Amino acid sequence: MKRLVRLCAIGVVAGLFAMFVLQWTVLASNKRRLSAHHPEILVGKWVLDLEQSSLGPDPYEQFDAWTLTFTQATTTTLAWTSNAIIRGKTVTFSWTGPIDGSPKPLIGTEGSDAYRWHKSALIRLSDLGHGETKRDTVTLSRDGKTMTIRDRSTTPHGVAFATLVMHRQH
């Protein structure tokens, strides 16, 4: 009987240890999620998945293809390049600046972007210079392989919504 109690006690301790390890692993993996503390997870090349995306009616988001490459993502600075094909026309531009909510001009096209953190999302506020403004909320999947951009555009024709799903390329 004592042996059975001892085995049960060892089983309970082993079970508690396994739960502790699992919780620690989950918490550690959550720390790598996109946030102001871990912006480096953005760095890399992201490709639009047209099948999973919902482009909406905004004429500036009628992508045939789109690649977004983050070359820098620190707690204070962001740099990226956008290469898109929209209705057969190639459009390339970039942005570099602080993540402090202040607008900085886009490079290679008109308009400006401003970025700030909100919990586990990167918020992009854009003035595209042709009567259109945007508010994008950028989030990443837990595994860091899928980026979702929820876009709210205000155009001269009204408000348009889109959901853009991008996958990390290696």
Count of DSSP E strands?
Answer: 10
Radius of gyration: 22 Å
| Mean pLDDT reading | 83
What's the number of structural domains? Answer: 2
Q: If you consult CATH, what is the topology of the largest domain?
A: Lipocalin
Q: Report the order of strands and helices.
A: HEEEEEEEEEE
CATH class of the largest domain: Mainly Beta
The CATH homologous superfamily of the largest domain:
Calycin beta-barrel core domain
Question: What topology, given as strand order, has the largest sheet?
Answer: 4-3-2-1-10-9-8-7-6-5
- Helix count equals 1
* End-to-end Cα distance: 58 Å
pLDDT < 50 stretches: 11-31
**Largest beta-sheet characterization:** 10 strands, antiparallel
Any guess at the CATH architecture of the largest domain? Beta Barrel
Classification by helices and strands: alpha+beta
Shape: globular
Helicity range = 10-25%
> How much of the residues is beta strand, in percent?
over 45%
